[in-house]
From TrEMBL, chain A:
Residues 4-241 form the ABC transporter domain. InterPro entries: AAA+_ATPase, ABC_transporter-like_ATP-bd, AdoCbi_amidolase, P-loop_NTPase. Gene3D superfamilies: P-loop containing nucleotide triphosphate hydrolases. It comes from Geobacillus jurassicus. Keywords: ATP-binding, Nucleotide-binding, Translocase, Transport. It holds the Pfam family ABC_tran. This is Adenosylcobinamide amidohydrolase.
Length: 489, 358
C-alpha cells in the first residue's frame, strides 16, 4: 500500500528553483530517507509534505488523499513531524508537551481528556523511555531527552506517517544512535512509515530502506542505499571526494569524505631511531596502515612503528596488553602506533628505500629464523606455543593506495620475503623443507595517501616491482645480519 | 537528576500543582479584593455589612437593622459599579496580555507594547475631540470606535510586519508596534494641542480611571469581555501549541492562520473594550499573566482563567491604592499600575534574560 506519493513536485523561492519535478512514492512500513547537501531542497520537500509550505506545483497524497483535501487536524491524525530543533517552551512539563500530540484527536470547543488520550500519551512516553520524567519541566531535560519528548508527542498523534527533519542534528553520537534506534523500533512495532531528511549519508545508509538523493532540487538517485549511494554519485552530489567502505558490523556501506590536504611528501619525514629495546620508525604525518601487528592491526592511521625487542623467554599470554602498557610508558599513543615484537636484536634492523618516478618506497625489516616454518607443510607441526615474531617488516609508500593496492602490497611483500628465505636456504627444522617465513611474522604496509594514486601493487606494477625488490633486499640483509650476530659468541 | 540539568531557581518551577487549590486561592483573592474595594473609601464599610447589603439587594433578604440605610446607595450605586468595572478591565487586560504573549511566543509582549491600546486611545480621543455620537450606537460610540481602532491597529501592525518579512517574527511585530504606538501618541498630542474645552476630558480619560463611570460602562464592557474570555479560553490548547512555535502548532494539527486571527482578534477585542471604558492602563496585561505563569506554570488552560481572576483583583486593589494614597484626592489608576508594573517588568526581564544565558 502506498503511504506517501509525491508526483512532479516543484517549488520556487522567488526566482530560485529549489525543487524540480521530484517524484517518488513510499510504501507503508518503509523507512525512507531524503539525502542531499545543504540547499538541495530536502527540507523544502519535507515542508511541502507537512503543509508548512503551500504546494504550488505537483501533487502530494497521503494514503491516497491529496494534501489540499486534508484539514490541519485531518493531516495531523495521519502524519506527525519530529523537527530538527523544536523551540523550547519554558515551564511546560513533559506530559503537557506530549499531550499536545492529542490535539488533532480531540473534538469540540472544550474537549475532555479521554481515556484514549491518556493511554496514547502514556504509551508514547513508555516507547521513548521518559515515563519517569513525566512531570519534569522540559527545560530540565538534556537535549537528547527533549528530542525524545518531541518524538513522544509525534507518537501520541498516532500517525501512520512520521516525518523527520534531521532529527539528530544537534546531538552527540551516542544520543543520535539511541534516538534513531528507539525511533526505528517504535516505527517497526507500530507499522509506521518514516520519511526522514538526513544530511549524514552514513545515518541514511544505516537506517533507511530506500533513499532519494537530491541535487539542486533534482532527483539524483532513488533506491536502496547500497544500490544507489555509489561514491561516484555522492562525489558528484556533494562535490567532494567520497570513499565508500563496508560497515564493520552491519551489511551496509559507510562513506567518508576526503579532506583536501596539502600535497607534500612526508617520506622525507620518516625517521628511524633506536631505543635500548626497540627500533622506532616515525612519520611526520599519520600514514594509512594495513598491518597484522600486535597493536594497530587491520586498517589504521599511525605515525609510529615500534618494533620492540623482547627476550626469548618472554611470556606471550598477555602480549597485547603488555605491549599497550609498554607503548604508553615510552610516550607513544597506542591509537596512533603500530606495535610489533621480535626476539631479534633490533639494532640489526635494515632500512632500504627507493625513489621511483614520483613515488618512494621504504622498507624496514628485522629477521630471525628461530621459528622458521614452511607454510605449505605447517600442518605437520605439533601445536606449539606462539613465540615473538621474528621477521617483522614495515613497508612505507609515498603515494595514494586503494584498498586493493594495500592487499596486493601485502601479497607482494610476503612473496618476496619467502623468496629471500628460500635463496638463503632457511629451512623448516621440523619438515626439513625450505621455510616460507616464521610462525609469527608481522607485516605493516603504510601509505601517505597523498600524491600519485596506485590502484594496484601486484608484482607486475611499478610499485609492486619496487616493493618486491626492496623487501627481498631488506630481508636478505637482515638474515645476513642475524646470521653474523648468531655466529658471534 | 538527569545529566545536563541545571538547578533552576525555584520560582521557575511550579509551586502549586493542585488545580483545585490554585483556583480556590484565585477565587478567594478575587472575592477578598472586591470586598476590600467596596469597603475602602472616605467611609469605611465592614465586610459583613457589604455582604448584608448585597444579600438584601440581590436576594431580597431583609437588611440587618444595624446597617445604616444610606450605606446601601454608597455600595450599590458608587462603590460596586466602580469595583466591578475595575475588575472587568483588569481581567480583560490580563487575559489579552496572556494571549498576546502566548501567540507571539514572547512573555514580554502585551497589548500596550503592540500598540493596540494606543490605537484604541486614538479612537477614543477622536470621539471626544470631535464630539461624535453616532445615532445607531449612542453612548456605545466611544467604545465601538475605540475597539475598531484597536483592531485596525493590530491589523496594521501585522500587515506592516508581514511586508517587512514573511515570517512575522516577534521582534519585528514588537518593533512595528512601537512605531505605530509612537505615531499614535503624536496623533493624540496633536488632538490635545488643537482641542479647547475637551482637554480635561481627554487628559483624564488618557490617564485611565474607573471612577464615576456607573454601571453603564461595565455594561458596555461586559459583552466584549464575555466573548473575548470565552473565545480565548476555548483556544487555550491552541495557545499551548503556539508556545512551541508555529511550526509545532501546525504539526499537531492547529489551523495556524485561522487560529492566529481568532486569538489576536479576541485579544484585541478585550484590549480595545477595556481601553475604551477606562483609558490606557498599562502593565496589567504584562505583569499579571507573568506572575501567574511563575506560580502555576504556562499551561493556558489554567493560565487564562487565573489571569482573569488575578488581573481583576490586581486592578481592584490598584484602584483602592489610587483613591487612598493621597486622600481625598485621587491618583490616576494607570499611574499606580505603571509604578508597580514597570519595576516588576524590569525584574522579570532581568531574570528571564539571565535564565536564557544559563
Amino acid at each position: 500500500m502506498t503511504m506517501l506519493e509525491v508526483r512532479a513536485v516543484s517549488h520556487q523561492y522567488g526566482l530560485k528553483q529549489v525543487l524540480d519535478h521530484v517524484t517518488f512514492s513510499v510504501e507503508k512500513g518503509e523507512l525512507f530517507g531524503i539525502v542531499g547537501p545543504n540547499g538541495s531542497g530536502k527540507t523544502t520537500l519535507l515542508k511541502l509534505i507537512s503543509k508548512e509550505l503551500p504546494l504550488v506545483s505537483g501533487e502530494i497524497t497521503i494514503s491516497g488523499q491529496p494534501l489540499s483535501a486534508l484539514s490541519a487536524k485531518q493531516w495531523a491524525r495521519m502524519a506527525a513531524v519530529l523537527p530538527q530543533t523544536a523551540e523550547t517552551a519554558y515551564g511546560y512539563t513533559v506530559k503537557e508537551t506530549v499531550a499536545l500530540g492529542r490535539y488533532a484527536h480531540q473534538r469540540g470547543l472544550f474537549p475532555t481528556w479521554t481515556k484514549e488520550d491518556e493511554a496514547a500519551v502514556q504509551e508514547a512516553l513508555a516507547a521513548v523511555g521518559l515515563i519517569d520524567k513525566i512531570d519534569e519541566p522540559l527545560e530540565r531535560l538534556s537535549g537528547g531527552e527533549r528530542q525524545r519528548a518531541y518524538l513522544a508527542r509525534a507518537l501520541a498523534q498516532e500517525p501512520q506517517l512520521l516525518l523527520l527533519d534531521e532529527p539528530t542534528n544537534h546531538m552527540d553520537i551516542s544520543g543520535q544512535v539511541r534516538l534513531l534506534d528507539r525511533l526505528v523500533e517504535a516505527a517497526r512495532s507500530r507499522g509506521l512509515t518514516v520519511v526522514a531528511v538526513f544530511h549524514d549519508m552514513n545515518v541514511a545508509s544505516l537506517y533507511c530502506d530506500r533513499v532519494i538523493v537530491l541535487k539542486e532540487g533534482k532527483t539524483a538517485a532513488l533506491g536502496a542505499p547500497a544500490d544507489v549511494m555509489t561514491p561516484a554519485l555522492l562525489q558528484e552530489v556533494f562535490a567532494a571526494p567520497v570513499v565508500r567502505q563496508a560497515h564493520p558490523a552491519a551489511a551496509k556501506p559507510v562513506f567518508s569524505f576526503v579532506p583536501k590536504g596539502k600535497e607534500e611528501s612526508p617520506a622525507a619525514g620518516l625517521r628511524l631511531s633506536f631505543l635500548d629495546d626497540a627500533a622506532v620508525l616515525a612519520a611526520r604525518k599519520p600514514l594509512r596502515v594495513l598491518s597484522s601487528a600486535l597493536i594497530g592491526a587491520g586498517f589504521q592511521w599511525a605515525t609510529h612503528f615500534v618494533n620492540r625487542q623482547v627476550g626469548l623467554d618472554y611470556d606471550c599470554r598477555d602480549a597485547e596488553e603488555d605491549m599497550h602498557r609498554y607503548l604508553e610508558q615510552r610516550g607513544f599513543l597506542p591509537e596512533r602506533t603500530v606495535g610489533m615484537m621480535t626476539a631479534v636484536d633490533v639494532r640489526d634492523a635494515v632500512w632500504v628505500q627507493e625513489e621511483g618516478e614520483a613515488f618512494l618506497v621504504a622498507v624496514m625489516a628485522t629477521a630471525g629464523v628461530g621459528n622458521a616454518i614452511d607454510a605449505a607443510r605447517s600442518w605437520q607441526h605439533k601445536p606449539f606455543a606462539v613465540k615473538p615474531g621474528t621477521i617483522n617488516m614495515v613497508v612505507v609508500i609515498d603515494g595514494r593506495l586503494t584498498d586493493a593496492a594495500f592487499v596486493q602490497a601485502v601479497m607482494t611483500a610476503t612473496e618476496a620475503k619467502a623468496k629471500a628465505l628460500a635463496d638463503r636456504s632457511v629451512c623448516d627444522p621440523e619438515t626439513g623443507t625450505v621455510a616460507t617465513g616464521t610462525s609469527t611474522d608481522s607485516l605493516a604496509v603504510a601509505a601517505t595517501q597523498t600524491g600519485r594514486t596506485f590502484a594496484y601493487a601486484g608484482t607486475a606494477t611499478e610499485l609492486g616491482r619496487a616493493i618486491g625488490r626492496l623487501v627481498y633486499e631488506a630481508v636478505t640483509e637482515a638474515l645476513d645480519r642475524y646470521k653474523r650476530r648468531r655466529g658471534r659468541p | 537528576m538527569p545529566k545536563g540539568s541545571r538547578n533552576l531557581p525555584k520560582p521557575f518551577t511550579r509551586m502549586c500543582s493542585s488545580k483545585t487549590l490554585m483556583y480556590a486561592l484565585a477565587v478567594t483573592t478575587a472575592v477578598l479584593s472586591l470586598l476590600v474595594g467596596i469597603s475602602t473609601g472616605s467611609l469605611s464599610i465592614p465586610f459583613s455589612s457589604i455582604i448584608g447589603i448585597l444579600a438584601a439587594e440581590w436576594f431580597g433578604v431583609p437588611l440587618p437593622s444595624d446597617i445604616p440605610a444610606d450605606w446601601v446607595p454608597i455600595v450599590m450605586a458608587i462603590r460596586l459599579p466602580r469595583v466591578a468595572l475595575a475588575f472587568l478591565v483588569g481581567a480583560s487586560l490580563a487575559m489579552a496580555g496572556a494571549a498576546f504573549q502566548g501567540l507571539l511566543k514572547n512573555a514580554l509582549a502585551d497589548p500596550y507594547t503592540l500598540g493596540v491600546s494606543s490605537g484604541a486611545s486614538v479612537g477614543a480621543v477622536l470621539v471626544i475631540f470631535l464630539g461624535w455620537q453616532w445615532p445607531l450606537f449612542g453612548t456605545f460610540t466611544l467604545p465601538v470606535v475605540s475597539i475598531l481602532f484597536g483592531m485596525a491597529t493590530l491589523a496594521a501592525v501585522l500587515a506592516f510586519t508581514r511586508a517587512v518579512e514573511r515570517q512575522l517574527s516577534v521582534e519585528t511585530i514588537i518593533l512595528a508596534g512601537i512605531i505605530f504606538g509612537a505615531f499614535f501618541s503624536a496623533l493624540i498630542s496633536l488632538m490635545i494641542a488643537l482641542t479647547g474645552e475637551e482637554l480635561r476630558q481627554i487628559i483624564s480619560w488618557l490617564m485611565g480611571s474607573v471612577a464615576m463611570r456607573g454601571w453603564k460602562y461595565s455594561g458596555l464592557l461586559l459583552p466584549f469581555f464575555l466573548i473575548g474570555a470565552v473565545v480565548l479560553i476555548a483556544n487555550a490548547r491552541e495557545l499551548n501549541a503556539f508556545a512551541f512555535g508555529e511550526a509545532a502548532a501546525l504539526h499537531v494539527g492547529v489551523d495556524v492562520t485561522r487560529r492566529k486571527v481568532i486569538i489576536l482578534t479576541a485579544a484585541a477585542l478585550l484590549t480595545g473594550a477595556a481601553v475604551s471604558v477606562s483609558g490606557t492602563i498599562g502593565f496589567v496585561g504584562l505583569v499579571v499573566p507573568h506572575m501567574v505563569r511563575l506560580v502555576c506554570g504556562p499551561n493556558y488552560r489554567v493560565l487564562l482563567p487565573l489571569s482573569l481572576l488575578y488581573g481583576g483583583a490586581f486592578l481592584v486593589l490598584a484602584d483602592v491604592a489610587a483613591r487612598t494614597i493621597i486622600e481625598p484626592r485621587e491618583l490616576p489608576i494607570g499611574v499606580i499600575t505603571s509604578l508597580i508594573g514597570a519595576p516588576l517588568f524590569a525584574v522579570l526581564f532581568f531574570r528571564k534574560t539571565r535564565r536564557k544565558m544559563g
